[in-house]
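Appendix C reproduces, verbatim, an entry submitted by the partner laboratory led by Prof. M.T., so that reviewers can inspect both the input and the predicted structure.
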Amino acid sequence: MDLFREIRGIFSRKEKTLFEAENNLWNEITTLENSLKQTKTDSERTIILQKIEQKKAQIRELIDKNPAKLKYRIKELQDELKRINEVNLEARGLVRYYEEVIRHYEDELEQEKTADNLKELVKYDCTEIDILVDSLKPNMYSYEKDYLDAISGLFNYIKDNFYLITKKMNIKFWLESTAIIKTRSGDPLDVAIFVCATMHALGDYSARIYFVELDDFSTFAFVKTKYKNRVLIFDPFNAEKYDDYLGYDAAISEKYKPFGKGIKKTIYSFNAFEFNSE
């Protein structure tokens, strides 16, 4: 509470008053030091030295109350609070994610998925996706006119509500779209499955999930689709806006580099209707 009472007193007038008080104390110390040079007895010398030390202690107290120093302390507190919040956000996101993984796949975490299994994950005909899609659509929704606005809303929804997991997992597992929307967290493949399912529900049946190998031999997943002769790569892990990678195919392929890395090859691609191994 003492800190916040001090914070409320941060005004330029107070800062000026503290500066004047500190300056006066230094002048008093100078006067005492001059008198010390003229002191003849040890007792008088001891008294003057004690007074000098008291004045210096008062200066240190004034410095601690200086608004500039308080502002620095506030900035330190704000930075620490931000760090703690980020740690807690990560922890909450991972806890939700792992709980859902355990609940769904406790007996089959290490099992490989078949092509049919992967297609089944892109589940879009369900209540959870329907509710979200209804919030993204305007009245009298038209795929031809309103699709990109809906996709922009989906991108913002993910950025505002999802914890995007970039840590490499030691085991392989996959969640279906309904589980991903429940946990509001996921790695690139999970998020791509959720995005592709939502795109299908918005009327885009050409959207596909691409699972690729990057030039450092790591893997990544994203959604790619076509809309009115243009290509859209939907990637909330690397884009700031939904249309950062919207344009003609050749230009987007040249521009798009996940985490600054080039794409070596596509390992496989799929959606709710088909699976292709490249």
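The chain has ten helices and eight strands. Additional entries are available on request from the coordinating office.
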